[in-house]
Amino acid sequence: MITVLLVEDSLTETEVLTGYLRQAGLRVVSVTSGEEAHLKLEGAKPDLVILDVILPGQSGFELCRQLKSNSSTKAIPVVMCSTKGTEADKLWGSMLGADAYLPKPVNQQQLIQTIQQLTSVY
Q: How many whole angstroms separate alpha carbon 85 and alpha carbon 25?
């Protein structure tokens, strides 16, 4: 079963996204900050990470850059999900290593298709 690490500080968004992911048969581990994400990543590695951009403390952009520059996590696909959906934001996410960038509110079908494309074992 594919495991997704969801890094999202909004309880409402966490519930919505978790529902979408579980409906698709995915296992979800959710945290509310970059610091918590680092702790989870020290243990079991997820198959994919979904990151909000605006997080308490470390931003999703910073976390994405760290994940993609670390040899133990750089192969994990990263999907940025944010209300910051301008072309500049998408370009910035891409430059930092994000594999996909989805604007909020997230379209369930688009989210699942993106995950299927990024996880060849799905």
A: 27
